[in-house]
Each structure stands twice: as C-alpha cells, then as structure tokens.
Amino acid sequence: MQESADAARSYFRDDGFEDREIFNVDSEFSWEQFKASSNNLSLFSTKKVLDLRLNNLKLDQGGKAAIDNFIANNHPEFALLITSLKLDKTVLNSKWFKAHEAALALVQVWPMDRNGLVKWLSQRLNTSGIDADREALQILSQKVEGNLLAAMQEIEKLKLLINLKEESRVSLNAKTIMQVTSENSRFDAYDLVDAALLGDSQRCQKIIVNLRAEGVYPLLPLNAITRELRSLSIMIGKKEVGQGLNSILQTSRVWFSRKQAVMNALQRLSSQDIWRMLHRAMEVDKAIKGASLSNPWDEISTLTLDLSGHHIFQ
Predict the structure, then answer these.
(1) N or C terminus: fewer CB in 10 A for the chain?
(2) What is the C-alpha separation between 123 and 117, in angstroms, rounded?
(3) According to DSSP H, which parts of the chain are helical?
(4) Cα separation of 167 and 99, whole Å?
(5) pLDDT tens over the chain, length 314 residues
(6) Would you say residue 53 lies in a domain?
C-alpha cells in the first residue's frame, strides 16, 4: 500500500503538484479542517495533493459529505489521495461509492500468503541484483513473514553488507541468510488457528513464541481457537451424517483462502475430538483468569498441538 501511494505521489509531483497536506483521520478528526483546505486556493497557484489517511473501516456521514464537496468543486489545483484499511463489500457496493466510482482510480492491495511471499522476495532480490537459492528464500521468508516492511529492510541490509555495485550480481545461499538476517516475522491469532488446522505443529509453536514475545494477551488466541472449534463442530456434525465436504464448505461460507486449512481439519477430526478440545479450552480460560496454577501460554501450546493432530489428551 505504501509503494502504491508513493507511485501516485510521484505521478502527481511530476505533474506539477509540488505541495502536499496530510490528514490522519481518527475518532478525533474534524472534517471541517479538510473542507477548509480543499476550498482554500493558493494565491501562488501551487498545485497541492490532499493526502487523506483513513484509520477506520468506514467513513462517517461527515467524511462522505466532505469528499462529496471536494469532488463537486472539481478544482484542478487539488488532487485527492486516500489510503485506508480494507474496504468491505458494503462500502464498495454502496450507492455513495458507486456514484463516485467513475471519478476515481481504485487500487486494492491484498495480504500475501507464505507462497506468495517467497515469490515476492525472489523478485525483489532479483531486481536488487541478488540471486538466492530456494533454501535461502525459504529461510528469509520465515524470518520476515507477515512483515513486508522488515523484508524490504533486510534486502537493503543485504545490499549494504555485500557492497553490491551497480549492474553487478551476487548469489546468496542459506548459510549467508542465516548469518545476516534477523527474526522479524509477525503473526496474529488467526495465523495460529490456520497453522493448527493445517496440522503444522512446528509453525504453531513458532507463532505462539512470537505472540508471547509481543505481549499479546493470551485470551485473544484462545478466543480465536474456541470460535474455530465451535464452527468446526457444526461442520463435522454435517460430515458425520453423510454430507459432502465441498458442500459443507460452501454452505458454511468458508473463505477461499481458508478452504485448504478447514478441509484438512474436517478430514481428520471427529465430534469427540472437538468436544475434548472445547473442554480443554475451558481449563485454559481458568489459567488465564488465575483460577488455576497452569501457565496459560503452555496450555495454549498444548491445545494447538491437539488441534494440529497431536492427540495428547484422551
């Protein structure tokens, strides 16, 4: 998203928009400030980019009215650049958005999965004059997964360390990557759930270590796990009465990006497994709330091992 916005700003700069004003839109933001700037023509005819950065998923009525006003005025001295969090379908399909769709260029940037990250790293390294073998790319992707900014920083660091000259190339192997790159991966509770559903216990433990080191409250991953268990309970019930797995995934509205993980879990888990893990989740909840002497993160680790296929509890 940052690079897309940089490209837009570069385009406007080349077109004579030398000035830029940034608006960070949060709960305390006043849209009157934006309206005043978008109606205030420069005495020196300096073209300006109004850089609107939305920190909320939805625009309130004040925001919509301010953008309506900007588009209606159609001042050639101003360009509007909006960056935001993911726009949901209700926004994209709203009458308000459809009314302005012809007047804007929309660039949507989607999250990158692990396979996409390896390809992306390979392309970026290649552009920088660096060839990395498959093992080196896998190690680098593990170290920067979920953190593209850190990935770019590691590539820049590699260029500096090897003193890469213009129009020259160098090859890197796994040993070099291990020696010079740092651990910068970032995960959330839903990454933990999907890793467990896929049966990747080693990845589960890495994510738990990462979440714990970042100070994540253990109730957050527990809630994500129990929510998934309840959802699986319904789907597994349908499987056990003879409904096909593809039909179950479709009627349960499982996102395409998660179908492989959920399918894996449906194929190997039973209702008995789900109820055993839900019972265990209650014990983890007690540990989090201080009602038992167990370590909450150790209990979450054991629970995810169970969900990933290592049936510790009988």
Answers:
(1) C
(2) 10
(3) 2-14, 31-39, 61-73, 89-92, 95-100, 114-127, 134-144, 148-161, 174-180, 189-197, 201-213, 219-240, 245-251, 259-268, 271-288, 296-307
(4) 48
(5) 888 999 999 999 999 998 899 999 988 889 998 988 888 766 665 789 999 999 876 788 889 999 999 998 888 889 999 999 887 788 888 999 999 988 889 998 888 888 889 999 999 999 888 899 899 999 999 889 888 888 888 888 888 877 766 667 888 888 888 888 888 888 999 999 999 999 999 999 999 999 999 899 999 999 999 999 999 999 999 999 999 999 999 999 888 888 999 999 999 999 999 999 999 999 999 999 999 889 999 999 999 999 998 765 44
(6) yes
Structure tokens at 194: 């999907």
Amino acid at 55: N
Q: Which two tokens stand for residue 151?
A: 């990935």
Scan for tokens 């928009």, then name that residue. 17
Q: Which helix (H) or strand (E) holds 170?
A: strand 170-172
Longest CA pairwise span in the chain (Å): 78
- Confirm whether 108 is domain-assigned: no
d(CA 239, CA 23): 51
Bridge-based pairing state of the strands 78-83 and 170-172? unpaired
Among 188, 173, 192, 279, smallest CA distance to 230 is for 279
Q: Give backbone dihedrals phi and psi of 82, rounded to 5 degrees, phi first.
A: -115, 125
Q: For the domain that residue 205 is a member of, what is the CATH number?
A: 1.20.272.10
Q: Can you tell me the distance from the alpha carbon of 22 to that of 63, in angstroms, rounded to the nearest whole number?
A: 15
CB 69 within 8 A of CB 80: no
Same domain, yes or no: 41 and 67: yes
State the CATH number of the domain containing residue 46. 3.40.50.300
